[in-house]
Write a structure and sequence with these properties.
Strand content of chain A: 15-25%
Distance between the termini of chain A: 22 Å
Helix content of chain A: 25-40%
CATH class of the largest domain in chain A: Alpha Beta
CATH topology of the largest domain in chain A: Uridine Diphospho-n-acetylenolpyruvylglucosamine Reductase, domain 3
Structural class of chain A: alpha+beta
Shape of chain A: globular
Number of domains of chain A: 4
Number of strands of chain A: 20
Strand order of the largest sheet of chain A: 15-12-14-13-18-19-17
Number of helices of chain A: 15
Radius of gyration of chain A: 22 Å
Largest interface: A-B, 104 and 103 residues
Oligomer: homodimer
Largest sheet of chain A: 7 strands, antiparallel
Chain lengths: 458, 458
Amino acid sequence: MPLSESSLKRLREVVDPDRFSTGISNLSLHAKDESFHPAHLPDAVLWPRTTEEVSRIVKICNEEEIPVTPWGAGTSLEGNPIPVKGGIVLDLQQMNKILSIRENDLQVDVQAGVVFKDLNKKLQRYGLFFPPDPGASATIGGMVANNASGIRAIKYGATKDLIQRLTVVLADGSVIHPGTLAFKTSSGLDLCRLFAGSEGILGIVTEITLRLAGIPPEFLAAVVSFPTGEAASLTVSQIIRSGLSPAALEFIGTDSVRLINKYTETFNFPESPLIFIEFHGTSKEGLAADLELVRELCEDNGATRFEAGIGRQARAKLWEARYNLHDFILREHPGLEPMAIDTAVPISKLPDIVAFAEKITRNRGIIGYVFGHAGSGNIHMPMMGDPNDTKSWAVLEEINHQLVEYAISLGGTATGEHGVGIGKIQFMELEHGESLEVMRKIKKLLDPKGILNPGKMF
Amino acid sequence: MPLSESSLKRLREVVDPDRFSTGISNLSLHAKDESFHPAHLPDAVLWPRTTEEVSRIVKICNEEEIPVTPWGAGTSLEGNPIPVKGGIVLDLQQMNKILSIRENDLQVDVQAGVVFKDLNKKLQRYGLFFPPDPGASATIGGMVANNASGIRAIKYGATKDLIQRLTVVLADGSVIHPGTLAFKTSSGLDLCRLFAGSEGILGIVTEITLRLAGIPPEFLAAVVSFPTGEAASLTVSQIIRSGLSPAALEFIGTDSVRLINKYTETFNFPESPLIFIEFHGTSKEGLAADLELVRELCEDNGATRFEAGIGRQARAKLWEARYNLHDFILREHPGLEPMAIDTAVPISKLPDIVAFAEKITRNRGIIGYVFGHAGSGNIHMPMMGDPNDTKSWAVLEEINHQLVEYAISLGGTATGEHGVGIGKIQFMELEHGESLEVMRKIKKLLDPKGILNPGKMF
């Protein structure tokens, strides 16, 4: 049901004329994220600049039962911000102010539309950084909504772990500020971690106080090749158990290694699975000792090449290659689109999930690139296909289904970091069982009319 | 209103006869925790042994609107498990089984009544430990309820941060299992962190899967004396900002140092504020380098003594003294009782809160011992008084009030780790503002009849 003229008029009055649009090009730009999920046009897009504007908009939408879908940078991978029920998209990208940097408390206040890469550029001069890194140029608001994490979560935690305080606009337009600026609290119910990761279905997060980390003075990285995916992933779980605290511990499968070799000039790795490990620390001596421990573990597991002592430049290049892997995959398969896989399992089950992923794609003749934030048990595998070829695309969906179900059977989760969005709704019952009913009740409590990002999560 | 004979009969049928009591001595044992809050007798005490028994008991209580107060070890400090509305106490101490240790996943499944010290004894042979440490012999269930943390939270996180999965009996007796065994998830609403820290008002946690840490192979500790509390606490905040990752960073004020000197044979510290810092790591080299950084920082801030290279035995003795500090205080003031202070502030505000605490006690002629988990911004100050001397006890309450309000005005919290219980209810409005209404609604949603630990938190 399209919005009435009177609704549009009320909404239009809240923001400047150039921050309201029903033009088709703006609607199209807010109809789809980076996933393969079908686009859906909103009826209007609004670009609020203040919490107060968001509050006024949401209040109107609640009164008139207009769906409100918040929008960050549109980089999500499960259709999280697709306005499947129409209504308005609330594009928060103009709420992009860094409000206050309190370096002595390792904290920063930002508006939700700040891009995390811009934030980290700004924080550099203070010797601080915000560790979670989803790869894409996401906004902090989007990262909070999805509990983004990425490569460094293994040491520094996910976005959710680093939230001190939120400003949240509730479904009725009222505004709350849950959280504290103290690092520790046992005071009241933890609303910050209820809203974080809730994908905008409980409220619209407009401002965030983040906890930061000091940029470590010393880095050390190593790339280690293994004969099999199993040997590599077994090593990953042993490194974690050993008490070492790597800042990144990535697994990259053979096919992905091949693409890195092909599309970069810098690298020529053996065409076999590898792990990339990075340590952050305060002294060269400490890092060197950690590296020795890792080397022993790797050699015990039959590592075929151990390349350490990687300098700052080579390290940056390697990370660049890791980040560009997604692009390499697209370039390798022109005309095809990726279906992302994102599950996480207990670390002892890493060898199982990697072997399973490789086996089912091979058996079905499907192209899949296994890699992931292995130290957190988080495995990705973009599978390439043509969404318009219904039959072959269905095979990808079937494999996705099998993999997620297998991960859950191992005690794992349907999504390690991409969120539920549209794509993972089908697994919520299996993963959460009776807990799902409690989640639904909380949704109903906080958004009785169901206006906030409808059609997501449940 | 005492329980009716028919209610008692129904409840009695759930458990073995020796696990149900209305005897005065058992009631008295469950009428009071370790705080100064007045005792209140329950009508009956039950010792369930399984989640199913808890479920049946809670279902009956819900039907008959009988208050249910869960009980761990009774070591809390804000009256958290005092059955202020009567009804039954659910003593979970017989649910003390360690159900499964999965060392390869760094995880353990425990029943709620397991004492954390017993757990860590058992885990030692696996080279693992559960880091939070509230000092007292608390149960894991109690630690989950209060989000206990203690000295090591600065490196390893609080209890809440280390929960993978819970088994929760809801107010209607139904059972849910929120959480995942994967280290990372973006799946659904975070119910684990909603129930954790909720002090039993939303549900009864009967089983917990905890994330563990590897016992570090190397330890290193230093004790540093400073001329003033301000210099010491300033150093603490600088250490955190420097990117170092201490496993403990404790502040001990002059009066507390004096008691440690007096009641131990081992120590003879200068009678001035000190900090105690401990590092955990994988190599002696790394720790030595960290220590050098700390030494420089301390000297820059005018440290008067820097005692490092403390061996395992001296370290253990120092921790023992730190843990026994509470007892020393009681021994020093026979006949008086302590009112605990527990606030946390942003770390840059440590010097302010320490100075404020010392000033207001001095001005009012009150005995107060400032110390705390300073690296997390968490400050304690037991003040000694006679609860029966209404007038002088009121002064302590006034100081407590002023300190908590000051902490909140600095952006901090009413309770860093003791929880709200009875004592901190008065500050919830000030700290949480409009968020409190959302908390109340969630309580009402999950416990519509208000049977679960009534009279607490709100």
